Amino acid sequence: MSGSHGVHGQLAKDVPGDPGVPGDQGVPGDQDGEGGGLASELASERAYLERGHRALLGMRQEAAGTRVAEGDAEVDKVTNEYLRVARQRRVLDLAGGEGTPLFFARLDYGGADQVPAAVAGRRFYLGRRHVRESAGDDPLVVDWRTDVARAFYRAHRGDPMGVRRRRRFGYDGGELTAFEDEPLASDATAAPEPAAVSRPPAPVDGMVAREIERPRSGPMRDIVATIQPEQDEIVRAGLDLSLCVQGAPGTGKTAVGLHRAAYLLFAHRERLARTGVLVVGPNRAFLGYIAAVLPSLGESTVRHATLDDLLDATAGPTRRAGAARREESVGGGPLTRGLL
User: Fold this and answer.
1) For the chain, what is the total number of helices (H) and then of strands (E)?
2) DSSP code of 251?
3) Is residue 81 part of a domain?
4) Does 118 fall in a domain?
5) Are 234 and 154 within 8 A, CB to CB?
6) Residues near 1 by Cβ (< 8 Å), separated by ≥ 6?
7) Computed over its alpha carbons, how large is the radius of gyration of the chain?
8) Cα gap 63→17, rounded to integer Å
9) Of 254, 319, 317, which is closest to residue 282 (Cα–Cα)?
């Protein structure tokens, strides 16, 4: 893989320390590295990926082996069934996304003079789900919806948000084949530029451009690795804010809406668990096209329905029978059903 241009001005360099250690305090340096250095770095990242896969398998086995503390078979029948279903769903969620890269990016944060002590000098791998080795351990991979991941989508040279380096990973199938570094600060102590001379985000290029421009076929997939700053603002907007996303066909309106649903389920889990989330589509074919997106992001409880489904669910037997007679009398269905 050759070096890219513009803000993506550097590919991998040799990294001091062990990149396999979560939250390693040694932030990568800027030494020039060729040949063996690049190969060694790529090998380290692949080893970290394998470590993450082993950890995810352990989480899945742990969930499958969890005993459900059931109550009385009759008195607590509903509660018992709920707990069993919750365990099964957890196992399925951890098994979901097979064939999908475990992480797609890494953030290397700067020193304590730039960011809170909790993230100063640390690196974070970003993925579609949280992955850890043992309960209480620092995560090997953090969920893309966490606050620490926000800078991946919004940081730029004018405002690096405390990030020293942003790294994106390239895959061929499930194999990690390349990575691309984007330095956001010239050194570990570099401060953001004054607002008066702040520059807007650099034009999209490199891996991001290739991913966005890649021909699409089959069902819709998630876009967590390529969400743009203005899209992230919509995705992470407050729960009480109603949004209308408009745009031409193929501009990502539906994808942004689905990722917003995934983010809100993460940020407001308890509240939305009580009320539920419903995705309404124009027809079954469309719902089938988007059906895999939320499960790939670890959200399998969202209900999908068409407008006809909702009308059928709310109409009583008499109304449905009357509607059927009216449809028959005018010779046909979809338009009449839409007006009822």
Assistant:
1) 12, 8
2) S
3) yes
4) yes
5) no
6) 11, 170, 177, 178, 180
7) 24
8) 33
9) 254
pLDDT per residue over 33-72, tens digit each?
455 688 999 999 999 999 999 999 998 888 887 777 666 6
What is the distance, to the nearest Å, from the Cα of residue 37 to the centroid of all Cα atoms in its chain? 30
Is 201 part of any domain?
Answer: yes
Q: Which helix (H) or strand (E) holds 209?
A: helix 206-213
Does a structural domain hold residue 295? no
Residue length, the chain? 340
Q: Whose CA is closest to 235, among 198, 265, 194?
A: 265
Alpha-carbon distance values, 167 to 26, 312, 316, 333 (Å)? 16, 49, 56, 53
Residue 42's φ and ψ, nearest 5 degrees, are -65, -40
β-pairing, 278-281 with 123-127?
unpaired
CB atoms inside a 10 Å sphere around CB 177: 12
Residue type, 249: P
Domain boundaries, position 43: 1-214
Contact by Cβ (8 Å): 28, 110? no
Tokens linked to 117: 């002590």
* CA atoms of 52 and 239, how far apart (whole Å): 32
Q: How far is residue 223's CA from residue 259's CA, in Å, rounded to a whole number?
A: 8
- Give yes or no for a contact between 52 and 125, defined as CB atoms under 8 angstroms apart: yes
Q: Give per-residue pLDDT as tens, 225-281.
A: 999 999 999 999 999 999 999 989 888 999 999 999 999 999 999 999 888 899 999
Distance from C-alpha of 240 to C-alpha of 23, rounded to nearest angstrom = 34
pTM of the model: 0.73
Q: How far apart are CA 171 and CA 185, in angstroms?
A: 26
Tell me the sheet residues that pair with 141: 131
Instruction: Tell me the C-alpha distance between 269 and 271, whole Å.
Output: 6
Is the Cβ–Cβ distance between 125 and 103 less than 8 Å?
yes
Say how many domains are in the chain.
1
Band of residue 84 on the pLDDT scale cut at 50, 70, 90 = confident
Return the number of other C-beta atoms located less than 10 Å from residue 293's C-beta: 23
Q: What are the residues whose beta carbons fall under 8 Å from the beta carbon of 280, sequence distance 6 or more? A: 304, 305, 306, 307, 310
